[in-house]
Design the sequence.
């Protein structure tokens, strides 16, 4: 158990819909990262939040947005969903000071999104 | 542009033998390299890392080798055990243009046969 909690574990929805994925980082971790893993693809970095502020952005579509709340949990919002958005979405947290990404992340179990 | 490449999608070895997983990278700005292990229905788990100032790091049965001139790293597992069967992701970390980047490869599925 990494200590990172993601909900829901599975989600099935239709094209054009909007969903919200939730992540609770490990206790004490200030950084939250979101990654997308599509079929046969590696982990694609989406976005990094540190202590409530956006720290870095990766290949995140404009239809996607995220935020980190004062209690440090984070939500990833995916809207106008397309078939190609079907993927595993991982959240990870890190204890690294000042939000520096040392690469040593603790991943949740992921949220599997299926868009039909 | 795939900056971190794991060219072998899968690898099968016999229990007790050595497993060698390879990874190549293209960007010289990477200065820290990591391996993650992922079991089905679980998130990736950090396994071992190496700084670019070193060429070898060992942790029990796991050793990571870095060849900076070739932009190549490898993970050696000796001896391999059936419980090592998982997908292994190589990752590279560095700062470019003031922005930190952590880039993952596509993974290699290791199967250790009893």
Sequence:
């Amino acid at each position: 158990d990494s200590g990172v909690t993601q909900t829901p574990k599975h989600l099935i929805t239709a094209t054009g819909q909007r969903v919200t994925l939730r992540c609770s980082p490990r206790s004490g971790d200030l950084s939250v990262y979101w990654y997308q893993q599509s079929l046969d693809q590696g982990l694609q970095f989406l976005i990094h939040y540190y202590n409530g502020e956006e720290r870095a952005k990766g290949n995140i579509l404009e239809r996607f947005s995220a935020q980190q709340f004062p209690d440090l949990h984070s939500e990833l919002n995916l809207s106008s969903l397309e078939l190609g958005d079907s993927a595993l979405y991982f959240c990870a947290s890190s204890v690294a000071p000042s939000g520096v990404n040392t690469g040593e992340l603790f991943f949740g179990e992921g949220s599997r999104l299926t868009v039909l | 542009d795939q900056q971190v490449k794991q060219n072998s999608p899968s690898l099968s070895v016999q229990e007790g033998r050595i497993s060698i997983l390879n990874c190549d990278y293209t960007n010289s700005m990477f200065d820290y390299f990591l391996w993650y292990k992922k079991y089905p229905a679980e998130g990736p788990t950090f396994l071992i890392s190496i700084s670019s100032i070193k060429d070898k790091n060992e942790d029990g049965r796991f050793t990571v080798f870095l060849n900076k001139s070739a932009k190549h790293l490898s993970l050696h597992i000796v001896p391999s055990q059936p419980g090592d069967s998982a997908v292994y992701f190589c990752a590279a970390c560095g700062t470019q243009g003031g922005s930190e980047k952590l880039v993952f490869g596509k993974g290699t599925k290791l199967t250790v046969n009893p």
Notes: The mean pLDDT of chain B is 93. The two ends of chain B are 38 Å apart (CA to CA). Chain B touches chain A through 26 residues (CB under 8 Å). Chain B has no helices and eleven strands.
